[in-house]
């Protein structure tokens, strides 16, 4: 099984603390060492207007273990600021260990990048991909992503509001989940969607900020020193990353959408 | 004006030497400091069969100058092995300095990634993008790429042989070049296409290998120490990168395709 990590914020924030603990699960505290990847949406250097989506994307994928990869080392040290982050460490189930099988996957639709990562295993999922999204690699996950993109492209003529997209995604999820475990993160730079069929947890950090202690590494951070009272950050992960905070577990079959660092109802 | 760098090889090769000189042009020996990017196709870790395309892709884009960017520093030090590389340093003409305007651009078609970078400036190029490739950023370059992808998707039902794609691209280039300067590099992991309307040069390095001296940095390398007699590497760049080798200039309007480290006739 793979592991997912997502972050959604109301102001660009770096993920070095969470990623540091998460990357330990790739070969040190756990056995997910068949590759990893992380994607950061990024606005304009002089600030994207708050209500606008972030269109730029940095994608780092690697078929080495995140605990030893030189690229992961860069990510741990280089505080990339982003409002929407999706990361994944891989334990291969379908598809060999190869770069094209590393999540997150990216496609363009309606002039936006869409980023997707999956944890789980879909059996006998061979959808009819009759449109223009086709997998490059061999995973059930990329096939599922191409099918989701095809179906949302069919359901909407152009980019719909977040609420409408959420409704469409809620309709699509059961078709995937009936083939097996389907925990996933998806973002288009405007919102972050998370679906759990087994394990997914989230936490919202906001004022008053406290100190958090990583579970997988002897590292703590006092967020009060690095934030303003207006900041709000949601972190979503397969398993809680910290030992002294209250994480909320997703229900089975639940899809949540995060905007500005909190889940929408 | 931007600068292009491409590499096409018959065996996976690292580009650290050429990139090192090239990155100096972003702010040190020249003024192209409005962002940069590099894309590496990569085969399977246990070796992709020679005649097969490389499907995996590592893409690094950054809106900082390549001469100072921490990500560029990583690329200079981390010898990523690839048979198809496209790099670009940007001097903004159309579109602000932002991540989504940094080349290379990537799209998927027929289950393959396609990578594109452009040097030049197209005026009044507003093609009818009626298909499913749309620009995320604001550049004439990404617009041109989307149009090329649309047209090759219309011209072929599935992935054609390299020679057929070359013929299609030769037909498309004049439509772009009549709007202004259009020097470009394009790859799908099977071949690398290069088109020049003004400046583009290439060199083929093969046995017997010699020592090359960079133009933009006090650095020389004896390729004989790092190669086998069977290796062959083509490097394509806006301007020659070395002072003691014979580079071939492209003619105006010329499109060449490189496979296995050499141009096809």
From TrEMBL, chains A, B:
* Presence of the UniProt keyword Chloroplast in the record: no
In what residue span(s) does the Glutamine amidotransferase type-2 domain sit? 2-265
User: Which UniProt key words apply to this protein?
Assistant: Glutamine amidotransferase, Transferase
A Pfam family that the UniProt record links to this protein: GATase_4
Q: SUPFAM superfamilies, alphabetically?
A: N-terminal nucleophile aminohydrolases (Ntn hydrolases)
Citing just one GO molecular function, the answer is:
transferase activity
Q: What is this protein called?
A: Glutamine amidotransferase
What is the scientific name of the source organism? Answer: Brachymonas denitrificans DSM 15123
């Amino acid at each position: 099984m793979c592991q997912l990590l997502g972050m959604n914020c109301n102001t660009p924030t770096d993920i070095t603390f969470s990623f540091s603990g998460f990357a330990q699960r790739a070969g040190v505290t756990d056995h997910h060492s068949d590759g990893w990847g992380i994607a950061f949406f990024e606005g304009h250097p002089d600030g994207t207007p708050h209500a606008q989506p972030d269109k730029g994307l940095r994608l780092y994928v690697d078929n080495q273990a995140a605990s030893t990869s030189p690229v992961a080392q860069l990510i741990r040290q280089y505080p990339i600021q982003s409002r929407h982050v999706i990361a994944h460490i891989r334990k291969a189930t379908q598809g060999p260990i190869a770069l094209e099988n590393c999540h997150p996957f990216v496609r363009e639709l309606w002039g936006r990048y869409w980023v997707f990562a999956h944890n789980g295993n879909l059996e006998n999922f061979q959808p009819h991909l009759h449109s223009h999204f086709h997998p490059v690699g061999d995973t059930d996950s990329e096939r599922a992503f191409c099918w989701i993109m095809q179906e949302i492209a069919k359901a909407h003529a152009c980019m719909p509001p977040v609420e409408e997209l959420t409704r469409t995604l809620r309709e699509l999820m059961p078709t995937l989940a009936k083939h097996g475990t389907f925990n996933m993160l998806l973002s288009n730079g405007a919102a972050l969607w998370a679906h759990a069929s087994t394990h997914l947890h989230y936490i919202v950090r906001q004022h008053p900020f406290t100190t958090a202690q990583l579970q997988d590494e002897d590292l703590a951070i006092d967020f009060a020193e690095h934030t303003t009272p207006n900041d709000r950050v949601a972190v979503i992960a397969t398993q809680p990353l910290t030992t002294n905070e209250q994480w909320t577990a997703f229900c089975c079959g639940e899809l949540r959408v995060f905007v500005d660092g909190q889940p929408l109802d």
